[in-house]
Amino acid sequence: MSEKKSKSMEKIEKEVEKEIESIGEAEKAKFKTLTEILAEEDKPREVFVPDLNCKIKAYDLRFGDYPALAEEKDPFKLAIKVLLATWSRADSSVTEESLARLGLVKCTRILEALGLGGLRSPLSKPTQTSST
User: Fold this and answer.
1) Which of 13, 28, 75, 90 is deepest in the core (most CB within 10 A)?
2) pLDDT (tens digit, 9 = 90+) per residue, 8-39?
3) How far apart are CA 108 and CA 97, in angstroms?
4) What is the residue extent of each domain of the chain?
5) Cα–Cα distance between 7 and 42 in angstroms, integer?
């Protein structure tokens, strides 16, 4: 009989390894005050966009951005508003008009690189299809 591990056992072992790494990182981390965290928030982060083979600078969304974004029902307009709220804070050349020229696919790829691709993304695949 083979000593081959089952896939579920391999999955459990990987999860345990990740948890051990996480605990190690937590032990090494230093305590920060809110003031220190906010100071870091005042700086844009660099994000690599694989499909464009470049880096961009952008800020994270803030709680104050939510009301205007929550009102938007059109997924295309929402994508533009999200990019304006994040990318344009770090790059003044990012405007609604320039994003419209950039195109939907590239805008979606940038949103994905920013970790925001799940925001009712206009190109998201349907989770259920009907076969009637």
Assistant:
1) 90
2) 888 888 888 888 877 888 788 888 899 988 88
3) 16
4) 44-113
5) 44
